[in-house]
Amino acid sequence: MTKRRKKGAFPSAQEDARAAELYVESPQTLSPSYRLAYRDFDFLLRDELRPTRLQLTDDKDRTHSRTHLWQTILGPDHQL
């Protein structure tokens, strides 16, 4: 099941990630600081970001639980 996203003022994370892969190689774009934060595992795995990772894990669990609950109520074919 694919989720449909409402078009808004900002691109989705997937659109940002695809656009970031379409760069011209230069010293700036080859620098680790140019990577998107959510695609930079060296950055995400820093010790000082542990509270952020824990929060994301908690949010992920709640989001999956909520999605499962609505699919149970409305049926698996219903688009959320």
Q: Any overview of this molecule?
A:
It is flat, with a radius of gyration of 17 Å. With 80 residues, it is mostly helical. The longest helix has 25 residues, at 50-74. It has helices at 13-20, 27-30, 41-44, 50-74. The protein has a domain at 47-74. The protein is 51% helix and 0% strand.
Distance between the termini: 10 Å
Order of helices and strands: HHHH
Count of discrete alpha- or pi-helical segments spanning 4 or more residues:
4
Question: Roughly what is the average pLDDT, rounded to an integer?
Answer: 82
Based on helices, strands and strand pairing, what is the structural class? Answer: mainly alpha
Enumerate the spans where pLDDT stays under 50 for 5 or more consecutive residues. Answer: none
Instruction: Work out the oligomeric state of the chains in this entry.
Output: single chain
Total beta strands: 0
Summarize the amount of helix as a percent range: 40-55%
What is the beta-strand fraction? under 5%
What would the principal axes of the Cα set say about the shape? flat
Major sheet, described briefly? Answer: none
Radius of gyration: 17 Å
Write out key terms for the chains shown:
80 residues; 4 helices; flat
Write the layout of secondary structure elements.
Blueprint: H1 13-20, H2 27-30, H3 41-44, H4 50-74
